[in-house]
Each structure stands twice: as structure tokens, then as C-alpha cells.
Write a structure and sequence with these properties.
alpha+beta, two-stranded parallel ribbon, 3 helices, single chain
């Protein structure tokens, strides 16, 4: 696996969920060669679901989440 591989987790909350993902990463991915990125959806998790469903889940979820964070 290349050293530039990433795994993204999109979570609902901005406080606790990133901490949970960080702890899970330390336990299960400690010896992995990829970086974990946590993107909190905040109160927009339902917007994210609706957008993905409208596109039959063919949307680049990272792009959608990044756009949502910028607005």
C-alpha cells in the first residue's frame, strides 16, 4: 500500500465522533500505511444522505462533504 493512501470517515457530530474514530484507528489501524481523515457532517448529515440518495449513491461523497463544509 502506498504511503499516500487515505480512508475517510464521515460522521455526524463534530466533537465526540472524531474522537471515537481516532480511538478506533489507534486500535485497529495502528500498523496500517494509510491516513484516517474524519469529516464531521455536523447537523448536515441528513442533507448529505438526501443528496447521495438523489444521485443513486453515485456521487463522490468526499466532494459533496467538502462543498458542504465550505458553505
Amino acid at each position: 500500500m502506498a504511503s499516500k493512501d487515505y480512508k475517510a470517515f464521515i460522521v455526524e457530530g463534530e466533537a465526540r465522533e472524531p474522537l471515537i474514530i481516532d480511538n478506533i484507528s489507534k486500535v485497529f489501524f495502528a500498523h496500517s500505511n494509510f491516513k484516517i481523515i474524519t469529516l464531521p457532517a455536523g447537523e448536515n448529515i441528513y442533507m448529505l444522505w438526501k443528496r447521495l440518495k438523489e444521485d443513486d449513491f453515485d456521487t463522490d461523497i468526499i466532494e459533496v462533504k467538502t462543498i458542504a463544509l465550505l458553505h
